[in-house]
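Our consortium's second objective concerns turning raw sequence data into structural hypotheses that experimental partners can test. To show how far this objective has progressed, the report includes one record in full. It was chosen at random from the queue rather than selected for favorable results. The single chain below, 229 residues long, was entered without modification.
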Amino acid sequence: MIKTLKQNYIVIYATVLSIILLALRVFATKTFTYTFLLWNLWLAAIPLLIALQVKQKEMKGWKLFFYSCIWLLFLPNAPYLITDILHISHVEGAPVWFDSLMLFTTAFCGLILAFQSMKMISEAWHYFWETRWLIELPTVVQKRIGELIKLVVFLMTGLGIYIGRVLRWNSWDIVTNYKGILADIFNRLLNPFENVETCGFTFCYALAMWLMYNGWSKTFYEKRVENSF
């Protein structure tokens, strides 16, 4: 538990700083314009909370698969915070430099929440990854497959951000209105040339997150954890 807490110090610091900046804005402007960020931060924290449960309970088998699916469903909520920066163009009440700092901090917090949860989930799958499914394959091939899995996850995350920001669907709509959201998704996937914005948005966010995650992972985890994807 203590080791897990130490690994999440940067998440705690970024979250606390985001809340402090938001509280300062509310106090200084006497408005609640950006308080929706609190809800977005809570949604962004859900993937990490799920990953913490997976790690602490050392889940395996079908339970790990089930929790991983729920984690993937909520994962786009974390980097979604990046897109809140668009509000700076039409929200008044505080200096632009302050709002820029506040929104940048929450965006950074969202990325760290996403990356930390993904690292935990990847470590949880490591047992199956190396000792069961791909034990016969060379290490280089295993790593290449790991990179491919990461890219697929980030592509799904990029699409999830687009679904939330542009199409305005929510994570729980997959339960309350799954027909509508699936129809929207498949319409864009089956007609990519008619939905260039969807493809561009998805690929750009996926590529950016993939590159940043690799840099973050190598910087903070390469020496400590070498075998997780």
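The partners drew two points from this record. Residues 2-220 form one domain. The mean pLDDT is 86. Both points have been shared with the crystallography group to help prioritize constructs.
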